Amino acid sequence: MNIKVLLAVIAIGFQIFAQAQNNKTMDKKFEVQKAETEWKKQLTPEQYYVCRQKGTESPFQNKYWNNKEKGKYKCVACGEVLFESDTKFDSGSGWPSFYQAVAKDKILEETDKSHGMTRTEVMCKKCGAHLGHLFDDGPKPTGMRYCINSASLDFEKK
Length: 158
Fold this sequence. Notes:
Strand content: 25-35%
Structural class: alpha+beta
């Protein structure tokens, strides 16, 4: 088999696997549901890519990675309050990082096996928007790091 053909088959396989993982979440029933055409009208292209297609924005070039203001971080798709500035910390990752969510019942966590690795995906429990990923290398008191895309958040100053 030609190496280019083999690489193309492998790439297609990864795409199919990632789409299957994406469809698991999209099949769930959330309190806020909209047709994809409605989400596309409501969200910017980058917000749609991150929240609805489980994309990732660039590190150190996003809106809130270095935000030091006091306030609340809300889901850009449905307005649910998810994180507080008091739990935000500089992880050095280039994305906004928090050591805990406002409440566990605001966040949905699922195993994400895309891109050849196993991680914990974080989503808004109210609308299913992809927010980012959860890691166990954060500071005290929780030891957790919610690594969240700015594109999935709105910020409300105190």
